[in-house]
């Protein structure tokens, strides 16, 4: 009796495992087809100067619209793409699409593209980036590649070499989500970053917690001293905006200024910026 119960449980367990494995495989298979099926799209989120309130550029954020799964967040599919080696193809597509798009924007606007650590470690990163940027016609200094602290954990010499080569062709480097990983302020001295993106977790608490405020103030100060642009991620309220502006943070990005939108809505937005009013800016008016 106990034995049959036990094996019954094992069976249920086994079939759950089976279901999960099947789902994992089907997710991966869907993701592999996503590009070809036109389910991927890049959304763009504005970054603005805190003082002039002018748009400095846009961050390219990948979106996956699956006919049945609906919108799958990048936090779910990027790690899978990294695991199955698909990130190179997806990353190249994002870079090509974003650079081609940005080449048509006014020259004052930059485009920021996220680079996965897996892409960063790839042997032919430099070659593929340079080829893509050149073909797009975008001036390389209008491209900002966002890397995360995790790439700094790897062999430092290789990391520095890669960053130096990217910088040599004029590409800008931004340190994304700064403060969330394990790298120290010292890493800002060792690597040639152009920009520091202060992580949203500090911004969320910047008006309510002294520790978060102290970190934002410190990082902004260090960034300024080292000649790097600082940008606060995830600005959602006027109070947060005023707070980061007060400590001297140069740029902001967040829902208060604008949510990520498709390139088509961006055209409209840019036309509006040359003309009358920007609804996205309403929240920022004094
Ligand atoms: P990230 O690079 O730090 O991008 C910023 C994320 O914060 C985006 O989430 C954006 O929608 C969200 N965000 C911006 N402003 C606000 C705000 O005011 N409040 C809140 N709550 N969130 C805000 P998203 O688009 O879901 O992307 C998540 C992460 O996925 C990105 O974080 C990035 O690490 C990764 N990712 C997105 N697109 C790509 C890509 O093309 N390649 C790679 N390798 N990673 C990507
Ligand atoms: Mg980013
Ligand atoms: Mg970020
Ligand atoms: Mg982030």
UniProtKB/TrEMBL annotation:
Q: Where is the EAL domain?
A: 24-274
Its protein name is EAL domain-containing protein
């Amino acid at each position: 009796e106990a034995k049959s119960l036990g094996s019954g449980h094992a069976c249920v367990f086994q079939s759950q495992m089976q279901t999960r494995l099947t789902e994992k495989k089907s997710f991966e298979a869907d993701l592999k087809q996503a590009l070809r099926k036109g389910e991927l799209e890049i959304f763009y989120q504005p970054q603005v100067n805190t003082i002039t309130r002018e748009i400095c550029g846009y961050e390219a954020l990948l979106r996956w619209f699956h006919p049945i799964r609906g919108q799958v967040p990048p936090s779910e599919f990027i790690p899978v793409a990294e695991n199955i080696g698909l990130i190179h193809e997806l990353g190249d597509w994002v870079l090509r699409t974003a650079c081609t798009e940005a080449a048509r924007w006014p020259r004052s606007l930059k485009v920021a593209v996220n680079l996965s650590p897996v892409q960063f470690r790839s042997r032919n990163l430099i070659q593929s980036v340079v080829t893509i940027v050149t073909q797009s016609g975008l001036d390389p200094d209008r491209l900002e590649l966002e890397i995360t602290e995790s790439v700094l954990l790897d062999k430092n010499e290789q990391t520095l070499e890669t960053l130096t080569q990217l910088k040599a062709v004029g590409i800008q480097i931004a340190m994304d989500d700064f403060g969330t990983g394990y790298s120290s302020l010292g890493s800002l001295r060792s690597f040639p970053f152009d920009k520091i993106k202060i992580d949203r977790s500090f911004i969320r608490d910047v008006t309510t917690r002294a520790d978060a405020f102290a970190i934002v103030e410190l990082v902004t100060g260090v960034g300024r001293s080292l000649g790097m642009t600082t940008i606060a991620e995830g600005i959602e309220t006027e109070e947060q905006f005023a707070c980061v502006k007060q400590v001297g943070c140069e740029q902001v990005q967040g829902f208060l200024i604008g949510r990520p939108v498709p390139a088509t809505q961006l055209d409209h937005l840019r036309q509006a910026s040359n003309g009358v009013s920007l609804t996205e800016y309403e929240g920022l008016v004094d």
